[in-house]
Amino acid sequence: MKTIGYAAYSPDSPLAPLTFERRALRPDDVAMEILYCGVCHSDLHTAHNDWGWSYYPIVPGHEIVGRVTATGSQVTRYQVGDHVAVGCMVDSCQECDQCHNGEEQLCREGHTGTYCGHDRHTGEPTQGGYAKHLVVREAFCLRVPDGLDLARTAPLLCAGITTYSPLRTWNVGPGSRVGVIGLGGLGHMAVKLAVGLGADVTVLSRSNGKEADALALGADRLLVSTDAGAMNKAANGFDLIIDTVPVKHSLDPYLPLLDVDGTLVIVGQVGPMAETNTVPLLLGRRRVAGSPIGGIRETQELLDFCAKKNILPDCEMIRMDQINDAFERMEKADVRYRFVIDMATLSDGQA
Ligand code: NAP
Ligand code: ZN
After folding, report:
1. Is there an atom of ligand 1 within 6 Å of 114 CB?
2. Mean pLDDT, residues 118-146
3. Element at 92 (helix H, strand E)
4. Is 333 in the pocket of ligand 1 (CB under 6 A)?
């Protein structure tokens, strides 16, 4: 099936239209028309080849909401017309202990990325959701609960699950003291979800410019991470800190904030970090961890949780041809708090 999308053609060229093929339906495949796609900072990292594993052309996008247009002969859970969603993975081995546990993101053979991956049957490079159509294995399709706003559901598929998963792994609930470093796409979802789980939530931002927003999102306070005096006063006050900063940075200002046995989970920077002083780690029995997205079962749990609690991201809708401006604004942390592309604005005439 021919489709159109927007692709990066090299690390330093703007995204531009691309016509490409989606595979013919396999028996366990679902085909969908993409309605909305969120814009994740990972899309920008990938377009620029910041992690060194991009290929070109590459169509980014892994916060996908669509409508089913066809199903393979063995598909049982979805029908034409259903509203479905796809996140950062489109396949895994389905046989290892992690896949059997519903933790496909940790597949022993490596999961297949929605983009920046290779099809497990043909080896072809995968292409993401900045496009009109997608074909995906049924097991990697999520159901959008009735009543959820479709456009605002899209960012739950990456920003949502990437922050929900550590909140669940570290058993956040009433009484938990949670810090969120960086108030962007992931950060603002971390705030809403932690508040939804009953935690006391502090935003750690580089200035107080987002203070009113942080409070409006439900946070209890904003702590300016560059204010050494305020940071000193907050020492030992957190059980869990979720670090969403998208670049190399120092953990030294943040580690003393953790209480004994507290954990700082890195979900932002993928790659080297600045040198870390281990004194606060050792003396405070503190921990540093990492966490990648979340499994399919947990992602469905998240969608159902958000529907029940009416938790949705704050979104700015854009046209497909505004993506390069959106990337520029994302680089300046000028997003309040997730761009979502309305795929109806991508017409065949653009390719
Ligand atoms: P985003 O919307 O751009 O938000 C990042 C936030 O970090 C900014 O709003 C800003 O908050 C802060 N920040 C930005 N530049 C900074 C700098 N130089 N120093 C310190 N803080 C800075 O990005 P996002 O979409 O949330 O993604 C964040 C990161 O998570 C990206 O690196 C992305 O690749 C990664 N990611 C990882 C996973 C995973 O599976 N672990 C999944 C999705 C995304 P303030 O203005 O409040 O300081
Ligand atoms: Zn993402």
Report:
1. no
2. 98
3. none
4. yes
